């Protein structure tokens, strides 16, 4: 295979109330809202992108938030934990911060030489903060809510729950990831040189129920492609291997293809370009509702249907 992804691009989940979602990810976790748009396939709901200052690939957590969405169920065939990377000495600080914010966080656990703190967002989405002993060189988003020395650096990893490991493991090898370690029923694969932002854990749970994608669950996991020609070549290679892959779709800020790994989780390959400053300046990211050209004629109707979203001033500082 010529496919060699360099790591995670983003994780997209289903949320409930959009204001509650924004308050948690902006204020409690200290991320930046880098794009306020809509679900291009269902423009009656927002698509909110959270990340670092500019929304670089590998820092992004995105949501389709529906106020009345039913609760989902974690299980096999899903990404069941999304993990963020934090500095090694910050796990205790985060445990205290989450507790003070009324978030029930578990005990700090050791796994694969890393400290892990697991918790849930307001809709029940399972998250974790992970401190990698070799650190994470990515710059944090410094927004005033979370001191830069403790701030999230980006995605660390995702955990996929499967009933059977072999076919899923083979799929990730086809995407250019390498097996690195195992611990009990957990297998770790890494892209490129590995480390935060380039890891997927496969959790093998044969007796677990099948997951149900709705509020509080992950919709899909996206992996990075450097550019459109590379993505097109990868798509052709996957098709040649019998994988059912969508056509290349224009997501305005990247191009996407989608397919399912054999265990059932929906995967995406997304391009690094053109990025989130293609339709608004870096200083103003996330401030206004942005629509793709084909939805602009329906802007008035779309805006009327969406609930009002109030953002903290820190999301758009006067300095960059």
From TrEMBL:
<dbReference type="InterPro" id="IPR052537">
    <property type="entry name" value="Extradiol_RC_dioxygenase"/>
</dbReference>
<protein>
    <submittedName>
        <fullName>Ring-cleaving dioxygenase</fullName>
    </submittedName>
</protein>
<feature type="domain" description="VOC">
    <location>
        <begin position="7"/>
        <end position="132"/>
    </location>
</feature>
<dbReference type="Pfam" id="PF00903">
    <property type="entry name" value="Glyoxalase"/>
</dbReference>
<keyword id="KW-0560">Oxidoreductase</keyword>
<dbReference type="InterPro" id="IPR037523">
    <property type="entry name" value="VOC_core"/>
</dbReference>
<keyword id="KW-0223">Dioxygenase</keyword>
<feature type="domain" description="VOC">
    <location>
        <begin position="154"/>
        <end position="272"/>
    </location>
</feature>
<dbReference type="InterPro" id="IPR029068">
    <property type="entry name" value="Glyas_Bleomycin-R_OHBP_Dase"/>
</dbReference>
<dbReference type="InterPro" id="IPR004360">
    <property type="entry name" value="Glyas_Fos-R_dOase_dom"/>
</dbReference>
<dbReference type="GO" id="GO:0051213">
    <property type="term" value="F:dioxygenase activity"/>
</dbReference>
